[in-house]
Amino acid sequence: MDHPTLMLLVTLCSSGLCAELHSGSEEFRLVGGASRCTGRLERKFLEGWNAVLEDNENLRWNLERVDDVCKSLDCGSVVSMRRNDTSQDEFSVSLMTFFFVDITCSDSIRLVNHLCSGRLEVMLNGSWSSVNEDDFDQQDAEVVCRELGCGPPSGLQGALYGETDAPEWSKEFLCEGHESALLKCRSSVQKYSGKAAGLTCSDSGNIRLVDGDHRCGGKLKMKNMGEWRSVDGYNFNMKFAESVCKLMDCGSPITARRKRLTSREAVWLLGARCDGSNLMECRK
Protein backbone atom coordinates (compact mmCIF):
# COMPACT_ATOMS: atom_id res chain seq x y z
CA MET A 1 0.00 0.00 0.00
CA ASP A 2 1.34 3.39 -0.95
CA HIS A 3 1.28 6.00 1.79
CA PRO A 4 0.74 9.72 1.09
CA THR A 5 3.86 10.65 3.06
CA LEU A 6 3.69 14.24 4.25
CA MET A 7 5.98 16.84 2.72
CA LEU A 8 6.08 19.88 5.01
CA LEU A 9 7.43 22.84 3.06
CA VAL A 10 8.19 25.96 5.07
CA THR A 11 9.27 29.14 3.33
CA LEU A 12 12.84 30.00 4.35
CA CYS A 13 12.00 33.39 5.83
CA SER A 14 9.27 31.99 8.12
CA SER A 15 12.01 30.55 10.34
CA GLY A 16 14.14 33.69 10.55
CA LEU A 17 16.97 31.75 8.92
CA CYS A 18 17.10 33.45 5.57
CA ALA A 19 20.07 35.62 4.77
CA GLU A 20 18.87 38.56 2.73
CA LEU A 21 20.55 41.69 1.45
CA HIS A 22 18.45 44.76 0.70
CA SER A 23 20.47 46.81 -1.76
CA GLY A 24 18.49 49.79 -2.93
CA SER A 25 15.40 48.35 -4.59
CA GLU A 26 16.95 44.86 -4.85
CA GLU A 27 16.92 42.04 -2.31
CA PHE A 28 19.36 39.11 -2.29
CA ARG A 29 19.68 35.90 -0.29
CA LEU A 30 21.84 32.74 -0.12
CA VAL A 31 20.05 29.39 -0.28
CA GLY A 32 20.84 25.69 -0.34
CA GLY A 33 24.06 25.83 1.68
CA ALA A 34 25.09 24.17 4.92
CA SER A 35 24.47 27.41 6.83
CA ARG A 36 22.66 30.69 6.33
CA CYS A 37 25.92 32.21 5.07
CA THR A 38 26.65 29.83 2.21
CA GLY A 39 24.77 28.91 -0.91
CA ARG A 40 23.47 30.01 -4.27
CA LEU A 41 22.84 33.72 -4.75
CA GLU A 42 19.22 34.61 -5.45
CA ARG A 43 17.51 37.91 -6.24
CA LYS A 44 13.93 38.78 -5.39
CA PHE A 45 11.76 39.61 -8.38
CA LEU A 46 8.15 40.64 -7.83
CA GLU A 47 6.82 38.06 -5.33
CA GLY A 48 9.34 35.30 -6.06
CA TRP A 49 13.04 34.50 -5.87
CA ASN A 50 15.24 33.71 -8.88
CA ALA A 51 18.82 32.48 -9.07
CA VAL A 52 21.30 35.15 -10.16
CA LEU A 53 22.70 34.18 -13.55
CA GLU A 54 25.80 35.53 -15.27
CA ASP A 55 26.74 35.06 -18.88
CA ASN A 56 30.24 34.56 -20.26
CA GLU A 57 30.26 38.02 -21.83
CA ASN A 58 29.09 39.96 -18.79
CA LEU A 59 30.70 38.73 -15.56
CA ARG A 60 29.53 41.39 -13.11
CA TRP A 61 30.08 39.52 -9.84
CA ASN A 62 33.60 39.65 -8.38
CA LEU A 63 35.09 39.06 -4.92
CA GLU A 64 34.72 42.69 -3.92
CA ARG A 65 31.02 42.75 -4.71
CA VAL A 66 30.46 39.34 -3.09
CA ASP A 67 32.29 40.53 0.04
CA ASP A 68 29.75 43.35 0.28
CA VAL A 69 26.99 40.73 0.17
CA CYS A 70 28.60 38.74 3.01
CA LYS A 71 29.03 41.80 5.21
CA SER A 72 25.51 43.05 4.55
CA LEU A 73 24.11 39.64 5.52
CA ASP A 74 26.06 39.70 8.81
CA CYS A 75 28.08 36.78 7.47
CA GLY A 76 31.63 38.02 7.94
CA SER A 77 33.85 38.17 4.87
CA VAL A 78 33.85 36.27 1.61
CA VAL A 79 35.73 32.95 1.69
CA SER A 80 35.08 31.87 -1.89
CA MET A 81 32.97 32.54 -4.93
CA ARG A 82 32.52 30.18 -7.83
CA ARG A 83 30.51 30.15 -11.01
CA ASN A 84 28.77 26.91 -11.88
CA ASP A 85 27.68 26.23 -15.43
CA THR A 86 23.92 25.78 -15.51
CA SER A 87 24.36 23.06 -18.17
CA GLN A 88 20.68 23.30 -18.97
CA ASP A 89 19.24 23.83 -22.44
CA GLU A 90 16.66 26.20 -21.04
CA PHE A 91 19.46 28.64 -20.19
CA SER A 92 21.28 28.28 -23.52
CA VAL A 93 20.87 31.25 -25.82
CA SER A 94 22.93 31.38 -29.00
CA LEU A 95 26.60 30.81 -28.09
CA MET A 96 26.35 32.24 -24.57
CA THR A 97 27.00 30.19 -21.44
CA PHE A 98 25.19 31.00 -18.21
CA PHE A 99 26.48 30.47 -14.66
CA PHE A 100 25.02 30.29 -11.17
CA VAL A 101 26.86 32.31 -8.51
CA ASP A 102 27.71 30.21 -5.42
CA ILE A 103 29.09 32.05 -2.39
CA THR A 104 30.74 30.97 0.86
CA CYS A 105 31.06 33.57 3.61
CA SER A 106 33.02 33.18 6.83
CA ASP A 107 29.83 33.44 8.91
CA SER A 108 29.60 35.80 11.85
CA ILE A 109 29.38 33.43 14.85
CA ARG A 110 30.43 29.92 15.81
CA LEU A 111 30.42 27.57 18.79
CA VAL A 112 33.88 26.10 19.39
CA ASN A 113 33.40 22.40 20.19
CA HIS A 114 30.29 21.39 18.25
CA LEU A 115 27.78 22.89 15.83
CA CYS A 116 25.17 23.38 18.55
CA SER A 117 27.27 23.59 21.73
CA GLY A 118 30.53 25.14 22.81
CA ARG A 119 32.30 28.40 23.56
CA LEU A 120 30.79 31.29 21.63
CA GLU A 121 33.01 33.24 19.25
CA VAL A 122 32.04 36.21 17.10
CA MET A 123 33.76 37.45 13.95
CA LEU A 124 34.86 41.03 14.62
CA ASN A 125 37.18 43.04 12.39
CA GLY A 126 38.34 39.94 10.55
CA SER A 127 39.17 37.77 13.59
CA TRP A 128 37.29 35.52 16.02
CA SER A 129 36.68 36.89 19.52
CA SER A 130 35.06 35.40 22.63
CA VAL A 131 32.15 37.05 24.45
CA ASN A 132 32.11 37.71 28.19
CA GLU A 133 29.70 35.37 29.97
CA ASP A 134 28.62 37.95 32.58
CA ASP A 135 26.58 39.89 30.04
CA PHE A 136 25.44 37.03 27.82
CA ASP A 137 21.84 36.20 28.71
CA GLN A 138 18.95 34.00 27.60
CA GLN A 139 17.76 36.40 24.89
CA ASP A 140 21.25 36.50 23.37
CA ALA A 141 21.41 32.69 23.47
CA GLU A 142 18.05 32.35 21.72
CA VAL A 143 19.32 34.43 18.81
CA VAL A 144 22.59 32.48 18.57
CA CYS A 145 20.86 29.09 18.53
CA ARG A 146 18.37 30.26 15.92
CA GLU A 147 21.10 31.70 13.69
CA LEU A 148 23.06 28.44 13.82
CA GLY A 149 20.01 26.42 12.85
CA CYS A 150 19.86 24.64 16.21
CA GLY A 151 17.03 24.21 18.68
CA PRO A 152 16.34 26.58 21.61
CA PRO A 153 19.09 27.11 24.22
CA SER A 154 19.19 24.54 27.00
CA GLY A 155 22.10 25.88 29.04
CA LEU A 156 24.57 28.73 29.49
CA GLN A 157 27.67 27.09 30.96
CA GLY A 158 30.99 28.41 29.78
CA ALA A 159 32.96 26.20 32.18
CA LEU A 160 31.80 23.07 30.35
CA TYR A 161 33.90 24.07 27.36
CA GLY A 162 37.09 25.07 29.16
CA GLU A 163 37.86 28.04 31.37
CA THR A 164 38.88 30.66 28.83
CA ASP A 165 39.23 34.34 29.58
CA ALA A 166 37.26 36.75 27.46
CA PRO A 167 39.16 39.66 25.87
CA GLU A 168 39.63 42.71 28.09
CA TRP A 169 37.50 44.69 25.68
CA SER A 170 34.49 42.61 24.72
CA LYS A 171 31.26 43.26 22.86
CA GLU A 172 28.08 43.20 24.91
CA PHE A 173 24.99 42.17 22.95
CA LEU A 174 21.57 43.50 23.91
CA CYS A 175 19.27 41.13 22.05
CA GLU A 176 15.52 41.06 22.53
CA GLY A 177 15.31 37.42 21.45
CA HIS A 178 13.50 37.80 18.12
CA GLU A 179 16.45 38.84 15.93
CA SER A 180 17.56 36.54 13.10
CA ALA A 181 21.31 37.10 13.70
CA LEU A 182 23.43 38.11 16.70
CA LEU A 183 25.01 41.01 14.83
CA LYS A 184 21.54 42.43 14.22
CA CYS A 185 21.16 43.00 17.98
CA ARG A 186 22.04 46.29 19.62
CA SER A 187 25.53 46.15 21.12
CA SER A 188 28.24 48.12 22.86
CA VAL A 189 31.92 47.55 23.63
CA GLN A 190 32.71 47.19 27.33
CA LYS A 191 35.82 46.59 29.44
CA TYR A 192 35.60 43.28 31.31
CA SER A 193 37.55 40.87 33.43
CA GLY A 194 35.84 37.50 33.19
CA LYS A 195 35.34 34.18 31.46
CA ALA A 196 34.20 33.49 27.92
CA ALA A 197 30.55 32.62 27.35
CA GLY A 198 29.53 29.12 26.34
CA LEU A 199 26.15 27.61 25.63
CA THR A 200 24.31 24.49 24.57
CA CYS A 201 21.47 24.61 22.08
CA SER A 202 18.97 21.77 22.05
CA ASP A 203 18.16 19.85 18.92
CA SER A 204 14.67 19.14 17.64
CA GLY A 205 14.60 15.79 19.43
CA ASN A 206 12.38 13.25 17.73
CA ILE A 207 11.35 15.11 14.59
CA ARG A 208 13.24 16.48 11.63
CA LEU A 209 12.69 17.71 8.07
CA VAL A 210 14.91 16.15 5.41
CA ASP A 211 15.68 16.54 1.70
CA GLY A 212 14.79 20.24 1.73
CA ASP A 213 16.85 23.33 0.96
CA HIS A 214 17.15 24.26 4.65
CA ARG A 215 16.42 22.81 8.08
CA CYS A 216 12.88 24.25 8.19
CA GLY A 217 11.56 22.64 5.03
CA GLY A 218 11.38 19.13 3.64
CA LYS A 219 9.91 15.68 4.25
CA LEU A 220 8.80 15.06 7.82
CA LYS A 221 10.55 12.26 9.72
CA MET A 222 9.76 11.12 13.27
CA LYS A 223 11.76 8.97 15.66
CA ASN A 224 9.99 6.30 17.69
CA MET A 225 11.55 3.38 19.57
CA GLY A 226 14.94 4.43 18.20
CA GLU A 227 13.85 4.29 14.55
CA TRP A 228 13.42 7.17 12.11
CA ARG A 229 10.53 6.87 9.63
CA SER A 230 8.49 9.08 7.33
CA VAL A 231 5.01 10.04 8.53
CA ASP A 232 1.76 8.91 6.94
CA GLY A 233 0.03 12.08 5.82
CA TYR A 234 -3.60 10.93 5.81
CA ASN A 235 -4.60 12.68 9.06
CA PHE A 236 -2.05 15.48 8.83
CA ASN A 237 -3.34 19.06 8.71
CA MET A 238 -2.07 22.59 9.29
CA LYS A 239 -2.54 22.25 13.06
CA PHE A 240 -0.06 19.37 13.01
CA ALA A 241 2.22 21.50 10.83
CA GLU A 242 2.09 24.29 13.42
CA SER A 243 3.17 21.79 16.08
CA VAL A 244 6.13 20.66 13.94
CA CYS A 245 7.29 24.21 13.27
CA LYS A 246 6.98 25.15 16.94
CA LEU A 247 8.97 22.11 18.09
CA MET A 248 11.72 22.92 15.60
CA ASP A 249 11.76 26.66 16.42
CA CYS A 250 10.92 27.39 12.77
CA GLY A 251 8.20 30.00 13.03
CA SER A 252 4.82 29.31 11.43
CA PRO A 253 4.04 26.88 8.59
CA ILE A 254 3.51 28.31 5.12
CA THR A 255 2.45 25.22 3.16
CA ALA A 256 2.09 21.48 3.68
CA ARG A 257 1.43 18.91 0.99
CA ARG A 258 1.28 15.14 0.69
CA LYS A 259 3.44 13.14 -1.68
CA ARG A 260 2.69 9.49 -2.41
CA LEU A 261 5.58 7.11 -1.81
CA THR A 262 6.76 5.03 -4.73
CA SER A 263 8.26 2.31 -2.55
CA ARG A 264 7.06 0.21 0.39
CA GLU A 265 8.80 2.40 2.92
CA ALA A 266 7.76 1.85 6.54
CA VAL A 267 5.99 4.87 8.01
CA TRP A 268 4.67 6.05 11.36
CA LEU A 269 0.89 6.48 11.50
CA LEU A 270 -0.87 9.35 13.25
CA GLY A 271 -3.94 8.44 15.26
CA ALA A 272 -7.24 9.59 13.75
CA ARG A 273 -8.25 11.27 17.02
CA CYS A 274 -5.08 13.33 17.36
CA ASP A 275 -5.92 17.03 17.31
CA GLY A 276 -2.37 18.13 16.45
CA SER A 277 -1.76 20.05 19.69
CA ASN A 278 0.92 17.59 20.82
CA LEU A 279 2.46 15.87 17.84
CA MET A 280 4.84 13.70 19.87
CA GLU A 281 1.90 11.92 21.54
CA CYS A 282 0.25 11.06 18.22
CA ARG A 283 2.58 8.29 17.00
CA LYS A 284 1.22 4.77 16.54
UniProtKB/TrEMBL annotation:
Disulfide bonds: 175-185
Top-rank lineage group of the source organism: Eukaryota
BP term (GO), one: zymogen activation
This protein's UniProt keywords: Disulfide bond, Glycoprotein, Repeat, Secreted, Signal
Subcellular location, record wording: Secreted
GO molecular function: serine-type endopeptidase activity
GO CC terms, sorted: extracellular space; plasma membrane
RNA-binding as UniProt keyword: no
Protein name per the record: SRCR domain-containing protein
Native source organism of the sequence: Oryzias melastigma (Marine medaka)
